[in-house]
Amino acid sequence: MSTPDVIVVGAGPGGYVAAIRAAQLGRRVALVEREPRLGGTCLRVGCIPTKALLHSSELYAQARHRFEDNGIHTGEVRLDLSALLARKERIVEELTGGIGLLMKKHKIDVHRGTGSLVGPGRVLVSGAGASTELRAAAVILATGGRPIALGPLPVDGEHVVDSTGALGFSEVPRRLVVVGGGAIGLELGSVWQRLGAEVTVVELMPQIVPQADRQVAKMLQRALKKQGLSFRLRTRVTGAERAGDELRITVSDHQGRVEVLDADRLLVAVGREPCTEGLGLDEAGVALDERGRVAVDSRWETSVPGVYAIGDLVDGPMVAHKASEEGAAVAELLAGRTPDLRRDTIPSVVYTAPELATVGLTEAAAGDLGLEAKAARFYFQANGRARTLGETDGLVKVVAEADTGRLLGVSVVGPHASELIAEAVLALGLNARASDLAHAVHAHPTLSEAVKEAALALEGCAIHG
Asked: Which residue of the set 65, 254, 444, 464 is catalytic?
């Protein structure tokens, strides 16, 4: 193995992208990963397996509840959970194996083991009873995040689980309580509700998806409630105890009212925290911020020169695409280039049905920043393509600066919101005005016309709304 120019610690979507981009720019790269499979949380036990389960469970729900509306009669619909889970594992295996092939293609040396800093430009790789020290001019830390534990609810992997455990229940729970109304809790709650579980979501904040636009979050909650999920908002979990094979979960709302929820399984999905244990940060002198994340400057460089940190380790939304973009940006910087990454154009998505996607500022957030903003919306019930799909729940909301019309943010709740938001990301990145969205020609009939109509509504001239 050659002496590297760059060492990347962590082979998730931040780390492997950083490694590939650095290799493309002519650097010799060493990639350190402690897990048997490359790809990090996202590919192994996060984004990809969750989306596989969401797709399969949605097909199952459609077959049970919507096929007949389309004139399709199938007879009795039967769930084969083991086959459903096996499909998920095949997808994970194929994608993680593909990352390995990319490492070979770009001549990236993969070192198996736990990487820890032992000084500037020095990483000790420990594993399988042996250790190796790597040295390079630059080190990129990309070890990602892990689920936050909740004090009263220690995860046992059987009855009380985190997001990883909820990917592989051996049978559909009769009653599942989800603690946390963010993306992870709602997505996994949706999976098991569609497959037959009675699901209750407990959320401490006044709304689900707390950072989202209030109206958009309420519309998503209403749609999920219609599907069968129930919600306890402004409620905290105060304890849980086993009663045979069941759990008795005590919750208390904002008025102090106590309720006991019975469940077979409990999913703790209250957020994620950076994986910094064993990285040798203290020993190397790498500073943390007040939230326990690695402190970096505008170039993602830590307090130790030549040591960089990206993704879930640093401030910002803990999403895979942020990590990937930051990984590529650091590789560009190390090659003497100036990356073009707008941190305010990172979208967030909840992959339920309907989906929720946002980018930029909500109307409330714009007001908090002292910006005079205006907002307009367009409902999917007036969109022809949504009607043909039978998916009319939701809306597009566009926020713009009142005097200039400069686009500030877009929120979408509805079918394929995760795809529709890309247009808004591009527009924000180009400092476009809402009128640019309004007057761009959109194919008909498409869901994207809802974006156009919402932007037109800002000018008071929506055609179908």
From this structure: 444
